[in-house]
Amino acid sequence: MNHLRRIAWSALVGALTFTTQLHAQGDWTVSFGAGGAREIVHSRFGTTETRLTGSLFNGEAVVSRHRFVARLRYGQGHVTSDSTARDVVEGELLAGYMARRWLQIWLGPRARTFVTSGLSDRRWLFWTGGLSARGGIFPGRVDSFVELWQAFSGSLNRPAASASGRGVELGLEAMLPGHPWRLRFAYRIEQGRLDDGRRDTVEGLTLTAGYRLVR
Prior knowledge:
Radius of gyration: 18 Å
Helix content: 10-25%
Shape: globular
Structural class: mainly beta
Order of helices and strands: HEEEEEEEEEEE
Number of helices: 1
């Protein structure tokens, strides 16, 4: 678990350093953000169902040039119920193409790991394709957005099996005119499942403050 966290944080710090260097070269848009999420995890394994709630800390970095964009997100936290507790680590590394100013196409891996004291990690890993769209509510001040993704390949490590997954995220992003700061509020729901009916469903509310550089 600690090894996974070190790798993820090293990747995030490296991405932030790399985006700063790219910005200095020109023709790049780079941004980074940090925030928190409140999550509800519904798990069903066989006849056992659990509901856990908790908070996560999130970080992200986004790099774009012309029509191409890359996004790294990482989060970690803790969810609990009356009878159990789990650490949670989640992340994604996506490459995207801006088909329109308001429409982006995404490809890449998304992963989530649950760790219960005394038990081995339970890891969901998905290779996904997705779409995201934006619309101006108050142009230049407030935008709405929605993102949909579907796994075309996935796996769960315990029990080892192929898995399916999908998710949706939607919300609002507010910008300060003439300033690089942004505030994003989002709701998302994602699910990973096996053919035998075992599944994890995650709902979350996220608040993220971001800083954007345009060259």
